[in-house]
């Protein structure tokens, strides 16, 4: 358990650069989905990838900082309830840290399933519970409105992470090599 | 895409001279005040105050035009869908019902709803000038030390500093990768199928991510070699000394915050100001 | 220098966790206090790995198996952590962008002090002092994107000097610096060495450039072993450099061409110490005997730039009224100082940026209407930074990507990819992930991926940065080979050797303007152009002046002609 929350220099650097990437994708790289007027926020796929590689702390901070800064850049001020929810979902993606064997080049069948279960649960908690509840507490938004928004967000983000996150992890895992395996031919 | 993240430019104004830490604390006090209060009188007061601060800081409209457009779109959308989803929210909150006119089906415009939505609109809008002031007048270098100053662990604060440092680099890299992929034959036209678009996005995201991973390795090595994380604390080169102005700003914003709370507790007996009873 | 040893490797071996064999074998090496050491060796020979062992990144950051002992200042490094090591040894890394973590120059220099919780007043004072040492005080509040490569490198150096360490380690400090800035960097290092008597270890491919100032010993590595540990004069007299694929200084090559048997008595380690009286006659006899090849008549222009202007932000002019043309089958070079606008020119040609005025034409036709993809069918660009081009995790897939995107059949792809991998010396690594390659090896992957597309013009931006001489020669001979088949080549480079040896013409850019368009031998002997474009006079010219040969430019040209002939015969 201790390993989950270990913060090394690498974790911090990964957080800083991960958040920068998150911002970039959050603002510029949205893939319009087949459902009209909605798009896949590729940033969450990336957030999930970093969370699995660097743990829940990095995951939470990347999504939190990335979301807060891009909100600030676009709207002048962060939309706190959603920024916090982003942090929560980043944190929960990170629970797949050390569970998937991605560092050993073993991100296959079972790992993919585990990763996706964790991310879907994380998305549901973040977007169907945390975000709406905070919206109601902080901003007194109408209940049915925020829950509808939350369900749509959870759905879209789960799909994004399932596609982008999984593919990134597969690609990364393919570059990881086993001990003592590199030799010139 | 600009090369710098925030268009911070030093001009000599009382707001620019404040330390980053002061501005962050003041920003937090004032945003919490308007986030907490649903009293339109308080909200308008804070809004007037923050517009005054904006003028003091000599922020020009051209600097914030894009943000204003984004915010306007957001506010309008929010207003419309709030009414669409919950036309009786105001009635629920204030406990009375004064109809203005019936629109269609379950939708009736009431004074309560109008009041609730107006309050909400201003509540959201009032945060914006505060954020803008903070962003445009704070030297990015001071940002991390300010976060550390309000109690955020220095490692997390440094992560924010790294984000600010490397965002322009990553942005430039994103462009370069995208161009070099186009030169290799990648088609980025907007008419492609959904799966193709996902694939194309990945062809750019993957190199970006991998080169970022390499960079992470390199930067964390460089930081380790220079002793990052050695102690439980760190000092900051860019932290400004506190001046009288800082003390004044802190007291003022704390007073506004306290005032808001007092209004809610003693006058409104709750977060809402209810003119209907 | 004292006789006290400060670094001591004994029977030291290291094997990376993922490698099947050790990268360092039985290293025995002693470095004394106050010495200035240069480590040379081909790419992948383990130089950086050795450096990582010194600064503690091995085993702190890179896992693997260590055998034997390494003592720094009498302490076994196994018993130290990276923080204790960082107090004794400061490292300046190869890539200045990775090392520059602060938002401004002063903040970056202060980084180590901040981590040590030094109070602000003391910190300011020490930062000022360190900045002054490398002449960066006036840029204190500049952000990294406003600085040139050389200025970033200076900042990195100051960031290490601020901490008064005993040993300084430089991993390829000259990569990506223009010749004059590189020379300045070597001078700064030398000055610090003389003033402070620190122990200095430099890892670098550009032997001749480092030897611009005194070096106590040169360590030659190959395949993870130390092959030679001697002073520069003795090394020049041996055949070790050539045998291990390290380029010897050009004046040494010239002496050999003239039939001089180089011995330690010639003191050829530095050109300033060279005993010229013994070689005078041989050189001048050789110089008179060189035959000149026939000059090819000019053919028709292939790619022409006419009065090009460009600016990134609409304010600062980056390219100012540049015109030149590339002829069919030509191999030309673009040179000039850091930030002159060389890479920008290649971006304009490939359509990555749009010129604000002027025309670029290909075979007489204006190509401004063509998309990036259409231009790329004819003109292939290998970008300066390999990491910006690599998008696949595996080498084979990366080289095949362009062909796949163009819909070439898999059989054909395999044939072409195998061939370029062979040519670029990557065949042994074909199944490796790119993550396990050194910088130089990655650069070769990107060259391979463009070569696989068979373009008609190739622009190579710094093709040989970080390459050792063997691969440099391999790549360049291959470039020449495709050049002979009719592909025109533009080389953008800081390597004056490269320009001298391979280009028939050089365009010199300074401050966005073209200041010369001539033969390389003319450019590198024209002191006005050299100064304006931050180039460096070639040591051949120096040699000719030292030995009393009147026509220096002629001598340089003779060397080039002779050299080309020798190569063809090899
Ligand atoms: N992190 C790593 N994991 C596995 N192998 C590595 C790693 N880093 C380097 N190597 C391998 O160790 C060998 C030596 O690499 P090193 O970086 O020390 O070479 P170098 O002499 O510095 O080369 P260059 O001049 O290209 O920088 C190479 O074959 C490389 O593939
Ligand atoms: N994307 C960009 N946006 C703004 N300015 C840029 C950009 N790229 C380069 N510049 C500026 O343009 C100038 C020319 O840069 P360029 O990269 O062409 O130089 P160069 O001659 O290739 O230098 P080097 O030898 O260091 O590679 C520099 O002053 C640089 O700061
Ligand atoms: Mg190296
Ligand atoms: Mg360049």
What does the model show?
The complex is a heterotrimer of chains A (185), B (277) and C (570). Helices cover 71% and strands 3% of the residues of chain A. Chain A contains six helices and two strands, in the order αββααααα. Chain A has a two-stranded antiparallel ribbon. Chain A is globular, with a radius of gyration of 17 Å. Helices cover 70% and strands 4% of the residues of chain B. Chain B has ten helices and two strands; from the N terminus they run αααααββααααα. Chain C has three domains: 5-241, 3-Layer(aba) Sandwich (Rossmann fold); 249-289 and 539-570, no CATH class; 301-538, P-loop containing nucleotide triphosphate hydrolases (Rossmann fold, 3-Layer(aba) Sandwich), CATH 3.40.50. Chain C is 39% helix and 22% strand. In chain C, strands 6-7-8-3-9-10 form a six-stranded mixed sheet, sandwiched between helices. One magnesium ion (MG) is lined by residues 342-343, 384, 461 of chain C.
What's a concise summary of this model?
The complex is a heterotrimer of chains A (185), B (277) and C (570). By secondary structure, chain A is mainly alpha-helical.
Salient structural properties:
heterotrimer; B: mainly alpha; two-stranded antiparallel sheet; 10 helices; 70% helix; flat; C: alpha/beta; Rossmann fold; 24 helices; binds adenosine-5'-triphosphate; binds magnesium ion
């Amino acid at each position: 358990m201790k390993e989950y929350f270990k913060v090394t220099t690498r974790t911090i650097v990964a957080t800083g650069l991960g958040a920068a990437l998150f911002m970039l994708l959050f603002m510029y790289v949205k893939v319009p989905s087949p459902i009209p007027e909605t798009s896949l926020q590729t940033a969450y796929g990336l957030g999930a990838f970093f969370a699995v590689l660097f743990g829940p702390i990095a995951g939470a901070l990347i999504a939190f900082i990335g979301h807060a800064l891009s909100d600030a850049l676009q709207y002048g001020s962060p939309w706190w309830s959603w920024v916090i929810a982003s942090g929560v979902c980043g944190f929960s993606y990170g629970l797949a840290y050390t569970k998937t064997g991605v560092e050993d080049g073993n991100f296959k069948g079972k790992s993919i399933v585990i990763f996706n279960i964790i991310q879907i649960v994380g998305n549901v908690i973040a977007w169907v519970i945390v975000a709406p509840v905070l919206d109601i507490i902080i901003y007194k938004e109408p209940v049915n409105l925020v829950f509808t928004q939350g369900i749509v967000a959870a759905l879209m983000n789960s799909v994004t992470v399932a596609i982008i996150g999984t593919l990134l992890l597969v690609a990364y895992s393919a570059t990881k090599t086993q001990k003592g395996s590199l030799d010139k031919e | 895409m600009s090369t710098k993240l925030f268009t911070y430019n030093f001009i000599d104004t009382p707001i620019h001279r404040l330390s980053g830490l002061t501005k962050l604390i003041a920003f937090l006090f004032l945003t919490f005040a308007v986030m907490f209060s649903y009293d339109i009188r308080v909200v308008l007061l804070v809004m007037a105050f923050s517009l005054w601060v904006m003028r003091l800081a000599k922020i020009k409209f051209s600097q914030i035009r894009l943000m204003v457009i984004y915010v306007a779109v957001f506010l309008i959308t929010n207003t419309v869908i709030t009414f669409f989803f919950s036309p009786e929210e105001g009635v629920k909150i204030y406990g009375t019902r004064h109809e203005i006119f019936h629109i269609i089906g379950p939708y009736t415009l009431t004074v309560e709803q109008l009041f609730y939505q107006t309050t909400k609109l201003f509540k959201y809008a009032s945060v914006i000038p505060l954020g803008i002031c903070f962003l445009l007048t704070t030297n990015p270098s001071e940002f991390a030390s300010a976060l550390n100053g309000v109690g955020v662990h220095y490692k997390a604060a440094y992560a924010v500093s790294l984000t600010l440092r490397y965002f322009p680099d990553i942005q430039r890299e994103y462009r370069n990768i995208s161009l070099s992929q186009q030169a290799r034959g990648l088609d980025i036209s907007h008419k492609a199928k959904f799966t193709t678009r996902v694939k194309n996005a990945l062809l750019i995201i993957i190199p970006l991510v991998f080169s970022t991973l390499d960079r992470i390795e390199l930067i964390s090595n460089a930081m380790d070699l220079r002793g990052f994380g050695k102690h439980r604390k760190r000092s900051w080169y860019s932290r400004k000394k506190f001046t009288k102005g800082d003390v004044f700003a802190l007291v003022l914003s704390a007073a506004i915050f306290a005032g808001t709370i007092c209004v809610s507790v003693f006058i409104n007996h709750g977060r809402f100001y209810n003119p209907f009873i | 220098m004292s006789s006290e040893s400060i670094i001591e490797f004994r029977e030291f071996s290291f094997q990376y966790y993922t490698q099947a064999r050790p990268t360092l074998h039985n290293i025995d090496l002693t470095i004394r206090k106050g010495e200035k050491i240069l480590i040379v060796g081909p790419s992948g020979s383990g130089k950086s790995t050795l450096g990582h062992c010194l600064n503690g990144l091995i085993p702190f950051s890179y896992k693997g198996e260590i055998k034997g002992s390494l003592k720094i200042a009498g302490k076994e490094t196994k018993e130290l952590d990276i923080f204790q090591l960082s107090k004794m040894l400061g490292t300046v890394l190869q890539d200045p962008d990775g090392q520059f973590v602060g938002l401004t120059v002063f903040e970056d220099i202060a980084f180590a002090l901040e981590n040590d919780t030094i109070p602000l007043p003391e910190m300011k004072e020490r930062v000022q002092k360190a900045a002054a040492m490398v002449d960066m005080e006036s840029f204190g509040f500049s952000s990294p994107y406003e600085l040139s490569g050389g200025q970033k490198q200076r900042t990195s150096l100051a960031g290490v000097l601020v901490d008064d360490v005993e040993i300084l380690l430089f991993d390829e400090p000259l990569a990506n610096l223009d010749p004059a800035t590189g020379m300045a960097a070597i001078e700064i290092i030398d000055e610090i060495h003389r003033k402070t008597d620190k122990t200095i270890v430099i890892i670098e491919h550009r032997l001749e450039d480092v030897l611009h100032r005194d070096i106590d010993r040169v360590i030659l590595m190959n395949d993870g072993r130390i092959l030679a540990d001697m002073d520069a004069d003795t090394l020049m007299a041996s055949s070790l450099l050539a045998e291990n694929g390290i380029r010897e200084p050009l004046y040494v090559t010239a002496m050999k061409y003239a039939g001089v048997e180089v011995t330690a008595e010639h003191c050829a380690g530095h050109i300033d110490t060279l005993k010229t009286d013994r070689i005078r006659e041989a050189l001048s006899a050789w110089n008179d005997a060189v035959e000149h090849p026939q000059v090819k008549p000019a053919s028709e222009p292939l790619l022409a730039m006419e009065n090009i202007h460009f600016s990134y932000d609409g304010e600062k002019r980056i390219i100012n009224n540049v015109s030149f043309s590339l002829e069919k089958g030509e191999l030309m070079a673009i040179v000039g100082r850091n930030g002159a606008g060389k890479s920008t020119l290649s971006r304009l040609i490939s359509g990555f940026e749009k010129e604000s005025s002027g025309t670029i034409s290909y075979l007489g036709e204006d190509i401004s209407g063509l998309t990036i993809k259409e231009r790329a069918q004819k003109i292939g660009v290998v970008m300066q930074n390999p990491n910006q081009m690599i998008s696949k995790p595996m080498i084979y897939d990366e080289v095949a990507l362009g062909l796949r995107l163009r819909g070439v059949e898999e059989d054909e792809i395999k044939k072409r990819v195998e061939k370029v991998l062979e040519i670029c010396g990557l065949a042994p690594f074909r199944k490796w992930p790119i993550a396990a390659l050194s910088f130089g090896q990655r650069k070769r992957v990107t060259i391979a991926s463009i070569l696989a597309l068979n373009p008609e013009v190739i622009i190579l931006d710094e093709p040989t940065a970080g390459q050792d001489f063997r691969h440099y020669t391999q790549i360049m001979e291959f470039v020449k080979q495709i050049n002979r088949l009719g592909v025109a080549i533009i080389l953008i480079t800081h390597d004056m050797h490269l320009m001298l040896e391979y280009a028939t013409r050089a365009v010199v850019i300074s401050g966005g303007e073209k200041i010369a368009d001539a033969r390389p031998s003319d450019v590198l002997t024209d002191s006005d152009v050299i100064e304006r474009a931050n180039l460096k006079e070639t040591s051949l010219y120096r040699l000719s002046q030292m030995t009393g040969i009147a026509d220096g430019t002629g001598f340089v040209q003779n060397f080039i002609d002779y050299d080309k002939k020798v190569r063809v015969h090899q």
